[in-house]
Amino acid sequence: MDYSHQPVMVREVMNYLAPAPGSVIVDCTLGGAGHSRVIAAMIGPQGVLIGIDRDREALQAASEALSDASCRVSLVHGDYGDIESLIGSLGYPAPDGVLFDFGVSSHQLDAAERGFTYREDAPLDMRMDQEVRLTAADIVNTASVQDLETIISDYGEERWARRIARRIAQERQEAPILTTGRLVQVILASIPAGAAAHDGPHPARRTFQALRIAVNDELGSVRRGTAGAVRAAARGARIVALSYHSLEDRIVKELFRAKERPCSCPPSLPACVCGRRRALEVATRRPIRPSEDEVQVNPRARSAKLRAAIKVLGPGEDE
After folding, report:
1. Which of 18, 58, 279, 313 has CA atoms 20 to 30 A from the CA of 239?
2. pTM tops 0.85, yes or no
3. What's the CA gap between 236 and 231, in Å, rounded?
4. CA 45, CA 189: separation in Å to the nearest integer?
5. pLDDT higher at 269 or 20
6. In angstroms, rounded to a whole number, what is the distance separating the alpha carbons of residues 272 and 177?
7. Is residue 139 a contact partner of residue 89, using CB atoms and an 8 Å limit?
8. b/e string for 117-146 if b means 16 or more Cβ within 10 A?
9. CB 102 within 8 A of CB 9
């Protein structure tokens, strides 16, 4: 299987994740195991690598990539939003590090038949987990105009969301919109000619992003997964998140801030009486960005932002 994957910001990830010999590390978004191969080498024979992915193709490719790993490896099919239950059944100690690398993988984008890309004509799918039923075609052909507008506006941050939603509703009355190519045509017909011709990202990029997020409930997984990682991790564990657009990054930033400064007491009180305890120490006051050299080699790294935090409570301790 060709599941080539160029991991993003490997040096920076390892610096903040700090895998050490004997560590238990969870890679919540295993993909092609680009980060995990480096982690496996660093944690050694006494270490444990737990890899989670909702894409069985990714798990198969990762299994092959990690076949010579010296550490113990457990690969789990599932949504990283369920991290607590997924790793809880394995019987390992609380993790010393948790890595999230959000968004769509290079393989999923490059495999036209998966329906993630607007650059080739293929079935309108976009499912990361092929075992779930909901596809992008289902949303495009059954959602109300208002729901479509909300999805495209909120998840894609698309200024022409209303026009695109209305055009989709008109076009699907003629025939269902079942391919990426037809959806691109509908989007292009919805946007003013001047805007579509403007140099910059492809006019369909934001709508495709929005549909992908909706199909896979990506933001729900980010919220549940990062919060679950904070609860499950060992004292002193490192939690590292790579985000590729502002919606993901905002969730991580707000969670880290809330877990570092949980006090809900009115500012007028001379001392905290709410009893809420700090769960995290934020290690990155500002997001870490890839170097220009890396972006030149791997253009998909351009939008990446890394945030990291250190767990200061033990698993199960009240915050």
Report:
1. 58
2. yes
3. 12
4. 57
5. 20
6. 57
7. no
8. bbbebbebbbbbeeeeeebbbebbbebeee
9. no
Sheet holding 97-101, edge to edge: 72-77, 48-53, 24-27, 97-101, 238-243, 305-311, 280-282
CA distance 2 to 20: 30
Q: Count Cβ atoms within 10 A of the Cβ of residue 196 and give its class: 0-12 exposed, 13-18 middle, 19 or more buried.
A: middle
Distance in angstroms (rounded) separating the CA atoms of residues 138 and 92: 39
200-248 per-position pLDDT tens digit: 688 999 999 999 999 999 999 999 999 999 999 999 999 999 999 999 9
DSSP 113: G
Name the residue among 230, 260, 258, 234 with its Cα closest to residue 314. Answer: 234
**Averaged pLDDT, 245-258:** 96
Which tokens in the block code for residue 250? 């905002």
Candidate ranges 14-23, 114-123, 263-272, 274-283; pick with highest mean pLDDT: 14-23
| Tokens describing residue 237 | 């564990």
